[in-house]
Amino acid sequence: MSINYIATSKLPTPWGVFEMHGFEDTESGKEHVALTLGQFAPDQAILGRIHSECLTGDALFSLRCDCGFQLQTAMQTIAEQGQGFILYLRQEGRGIGLLNKIRAYELQDGGANTVEANERLGFEADMRKYDMIVPMLEKIGVNQVRLMTNNPRKVAAMQQAGIKVEERVPLQVGKNRYNEQYLKTKSTQLGHMMSEHHFVDDAAE
Q1: The domain defined by 3-91+128-198 carries CATH number 3.40.50.10990
Q2: Do the Cβ atoms of 57 and 66 come closer than 8 Å?
């Protein structure tokens, strides 16, 4: 995998003005983005999130998952603290792509859970890779993190990249009647660290 840094620009958002850093994977042609806010000191644990692309949740306001809620909450939290980063990785549908994700949704409409649907289509439950985070983190100057995630695989990815994870910050938002089963599956079958008591900002009840 070869990740090239391309350019940096301002990104005004409802929560603050972030810096947007563009990267290209020259092997796959995929484009990834790092958002940063504030200045980072080398010996400081920076609040941040690894976020995999979810067109349906991030851009189309889907209630079938918690992705869009997590992205917005992460951006708002970083803005409130005045410092942090988000690595936005183009890995739609846990790595199976948008059209296969829609096929998986069709199977879920018929009663399958998110893991069963992926496996019926011939995929692993989670096919995401995190190799690209190494050059991205090097570019933005992060080597210690307070990681906003419920996913132990992301904590492991940071550690394998040589990044010290000082703290895992739970990010449990967006639970609603359309994604209750999805969240349960993430907890019971994918090992996500979630507690019913820690969910906030429930949506569309």
Answers
A1: yes
A2: yes
